[in-house]
Amino acid sequence: MSLDPKDVASAVPPAANRPVAWHGLSAEDVLVRLGSSAGGLTAAEAARRLAVDGPNELAEGGRVGPFRLFVRQFNSVIIWILIVAGIVSGVLGGATDAIAILAIVVLNAGIGFYQELGAEKSIAALKRMTAPRAAVRRDGVVGEVPAAAVVVGDILVLSAGDLVAADARLLASDSLRCIESALTGESSTVSKRPDLLPVEEIPLGDRANLVLQGTSVATGAGEAVVVAVAMRTELGHIAALITTVGAEEETPLQRKLDAFGRVLVWAALGIVALLFGLGLLRGSPPLELALTAIGLAVAAVPEGLPAVVTVALSLGVLRMARRRTLVRKLAAVETLGSTNVICTDKTGTLTVGEMTARVLYVADRDYEVTGEGYGPSGEIHGEGRPTNAAHNAPLRELATVLLGCNQAHLVEEDGRWKTLGDPTEGALLAAGAKAGVDRVELEREQPKRREFPFDSDRKRGSVVRQLPGGGLRVYCNGAPGVVLGLCTGHLTVAGVVPLTASDRDRLLAHAAALAGKSLRVLASAQRDLAAGAPADLTAELVERDLVFIGLTGMLDPPRPEAKAAIARCHSAGIRVVMITGDHPATAAAIARDLTISADATATTGAELEKMSDEDLRRLAARVAVYARVTAEHKLRIVRALKAGGAVVAMTGDGVNDAPAIKGADIGIAMGKSGTEVTKQAADMIITDDNFATIVAAVEEGRGIYDNIRKTLQYLLAGNTGELLFMTVCVLVTLPVPLLPIHLLWINLVTDGLPALCLATDPIDPDVMKRHPRHRLERITDARFLRTMAFTGLLTAGVALAVYAHALRTQPVEVARTMAFTVLVFAELFRAFGARSASKGVWQIPVLTNVPLLLVVGLSVGLQFWSQHSAVLGRFLKSSSLPVVDFLLLLVAGLIPLVALEGVKVVRRLHSDHSVIPPVELPAPKS
């Protein structure tokens, strides 16, 4: 099934405008509206609907063919400048240079083509999330059908472990709980029941009578009538958002380089036209003028620039891979460096993404549980120290209840522990194991005889087990208020004592205090029964006269390194914005804990629904926490931030993050916990799911931008010097000083190779102490242009002085060779000073960039060889020079470097003297 993105957009209306609020209709009304019944559709009616509506599959947006993808790689002014330079070089007989230039063009195009060929795989990954088969009731009989054959009106029969095949309204449920974290961001399992809900729009995560395509059943069973399939499901709505986010925008670096390229083209054409016109007025031969004009155009074009940018980004990608970041799109590296807002999901990104027991309360004492997630690593601490034998007995009592009343299982896959079943019960299993109780041994010694599953109405669940002596014991976990209301005794250090009203109030107050710390609190209790027939027992009979054992406080904990990473973002001038589908109170508590914002009040999705895009744009500039939001809300927030001028990075791991990740300036997916959908929509993937790695990637991005900027200045200053030198010579009617082959050699070899080395310079240690660049900041600002012009003047001045002096005593060919040689030396030596705009060459250890040292030495050697080798001399059209002259030119080539270093010293001295010492004000009178 294939749709054009525009058709997808029209086919799927925004969530807020959908015509039927199924959660607000009774089950009977839903069945009537859909023309179905509790017995399901007939097979014939299901076949008819399938033929009319099409299969239950997600539509794919219109694909761009490989040829169009390849052609699109040439939509860059710099690339076209490079192509023209290659053609000109070929026309002038420089076949080697032409091949080299065009090889760079093809390499750039190949890299971009490879990256974009797989960029539209998000929908395919979403399709893999849908259930391959589904249990449905048709003609009153339950059977399995392919998920693609499910139609509106079908009755889904759900059980634990099922992947929900379509959006459906519950008709009946038995302790049904679903895992919706990937779709809504809810970190806990969600209780589902068929009760009627208010008609008004409520958040997706609170629609308890709906089950959603792509989510899974954790526990229990249920039946539901299908209300939406294919692109009309919530998952389909996300697929439409991904498809219709639009064409990927150019990165800030791409925009700046293209803008610069356009300026460069017009400037070069203007100068060439001016000089060509002046030559005609003077009566110069047109052929000679054409050759001069072509030489000027070559001098104006930094042929090595695209290669340098590509290499700088590619090496950045390699360095980032060593820092656990996989980059899918080269330009994303630099974009991350200019990011000033990081929007991040909470669950699995700032937090571990796994429910973890943090506090055990038993026998009037709190115990801390260490370790993260479902793994066995961790201990139980009392007052900051591991527990001893005196504490172990009551802790084992509580742990036995946690494991005894539990339907989940923990498994280890690829070195990582996961839970099969309810994540909350998985957290209880891990806590019980840390307290020293063996699940296998418990199951063997106390086999399960009866179970009363957790129910959202009863707010508790119980298991009856048989003791070794033949008696029965009830283990019960549930909401503290409910469980304590069923208790008549409680466990203390002295043993079990009667539970008084004041004891109950005290325990409820302690549970409330734990809940105030954003912990999900469960109470545990037990009761012994006489031996009897378990089948005769009911929940009402066993869940009374219980003995209160203790409390367990759980949460999805913040990642240990997240707080320091966020602090580093703040010091680097980067805002961190949390966007989550979780509850507002939970989001605000995590935000406060991680110091995301001093005012960590959460703005909800319901509030966003009432805002216009302009209102949201103003709000987004100051709000740092959003909760209970959908995939569409997340995309709106990202767009609002971008509309306010921010360069936005969006991180996340769930399906509901994918549209915003694709719509951001740079999308970042989590490698371990991230869904395949999110990874395919992202520009880069963090392999260790560590928020701190994102900050390291930002540092790398800033360093790469600095390297590209100083490399660009180095190249352009060289081109400016060549252009000025050529122009002045033409204006004063001196012979053409440099041939095109000289200019190509300087631009591609003498400038190009040192520029590649500059692009790999180590990152400045202070790069994260600076604020990020503004989105609209030009890569060539006033200071950049002043330095470029001054450097060009210095280089052109030295070359002109050498050339004019040589013409008095030497033939034109020798004078050209001397001018060519001094330009080469000036460019090579200047590379050492170009490593920093503020530090002197003596302040930067030479051995921190060994390749630059080798390239300069090799280039000096080649220049010497070109004047003493017949083959290379003919290729470069250069003459032989005495060694003394060669050494004098070497010294002359140092003049621009010395002058530029002197400017740095003066600038530093001026900066030091311009700092005004702080004035101490007198203390106020008391």
Could you provide a short overview of the structure?
The protein is α+β, with helices and mostly antiparallel strands and 926 residues long. The chain has 36 helices and 28 strands. It is 48% helix and 17% strand.
Task: Indicate the topology.
Elements: H1 5-11, H2 27-34, H3 43-53, H4 66-72, H5 77-91, H6 95-117, H7 122-129, E1 133-138, E2 141-146, E3 155-159, E4 167-179, H8 181-184, E5 190-191, E6 210-211, E7 216-228, H9 234-244, H10 252-282, H11 286-300, H12 305-322, E8 325-327, H13 332-337, E9 341-344, H14 346-350, E10 356-362, E11 365-369, E12 380-382, E13 385-386, H15 389-404, E14 409-413, E15 416-420, H16 423-434, H17 439-445, E16 448-455, E17 460-466, E18 472-478, H18 480-485, E19 487-492, E20 495-498, H19 501-515, E21 520-529, H20 539-542, E22 546-555, H21 562-571, E23 575-579, H22 584-593, E24 603-604, H23 605-609, H24 613-620, E25 625-627, H25 631-643, E26 648-652, H26 658-663, E27 666-670, H27 676-681, E28 684-686, H28 691-731, H29 740-750, H30 752-758, H31 782-809, H32 812-833, H33 850-866, H34 870-876, H35 883-892, H36 895-913
Parallel strand pairs: 9-23, 9-26, 19-22, 23-25, 24-25, 26-27, 27-28
Antiparallel strand pairs: 1-2, 1-3, 3-7, 4-5, 4-6, 4-7, 8-28, 10-11, 10-22, 11-12, 12-13, 14-15, 16-17, 17-18, 18-21, 19-20, 21-22
Helix pairs in contact: 1-9, 4-6, 5-6, 10-11, 10-28, 11-28, 11-29, 12-28, 15-16, 21-28, 24-25, 28-30, 28-31, 30-33, 31-32, 31-36, 32-33, 32-35, 32-36
